[in-house]
């Protein structure tokens, strides 16, 4: 076989000097095969010698080393000798970086440190406020696409003459060297594990849907609003990159350096261009905190704008005499604007509310009643330092 390959290589070099410069594809593939063989032959021989030596040593040790009757005779106790519950309690105290380091100690600890129940706490503590149903669906789609991609890569073999030759070539290393995209990692991290999700978020590789308060670095036109975007984490600055979807004549807008306090998980599943179904209109009373959809025109996506329910003009605000809660008209106030501003007040119909507005004042959509103190506090932290015109 060796002399055959030498003759083949000589023939290829000779034909290259006599024939036109371009060789047929099968000749190039044979040349590549020969180069791969020469590169891998020394390391393959070394591996064979090492394995042979290891087997000899192990067989001799079996004859010489006496059987260990108890743990004390074998030496000091290792962490792997701890009961499972004690070991998991220790691992549960580690940080994500500590778990990753511990997973590289041995195969037993690797499987334990990658288990979902150890990573659920880290996932909840760091990402729980940002990962909503929309981000979970996006991750499931990401996992499915990765699995399908890996499956097609494993099933698809090399093409052409070289691929056909690899099917019958006696050396097992040939197929692993030719197949592009094969992972060199012996035990890759399962793509559907919580650890994989955490690491994808931490590295910024996974973009997920979220909502951002006061978009575009707090542009005055977006004060006390919250818009949909795709974000990815930047661990170097402990902030986020944001991509706002295009609308109207505007292309995708990129914002960097978005801080944690400006992000939230989308509270509803309503897409940004769809009207949210308001299920709280009958319960609205003066003083309630609300969010309402608003957009500049029909081409724009909705954003959520903060406001409060006000009193009718005919009501003096006396809580004992107020009947605003039984009126079909609901007054909404946006007190970040000066009195008299066209953005200060608007009204909606309690019984028959649909998208209302025009091209000059924009269009008002669905309403959410805020019941959580945390949501209300988040809006108040973003209150502008100056009253808006």
Automatic annotation (TrEMBL):
Residues 1-19 form the signal peptide. Keywords: Signal. It comes from the Eukaryota. The keyword Signal applies. Residues 76-122 form the F-box domain. Coiled coil: none annotated. The keyword Signal applies. SUPFAM superfamilies: F-box domain. Pfam families: F-box (PF00646). InterPro entries: F-box-like_dom_sf, F-box_dom. This is F-box protein. It comes from Acorus gramineus.
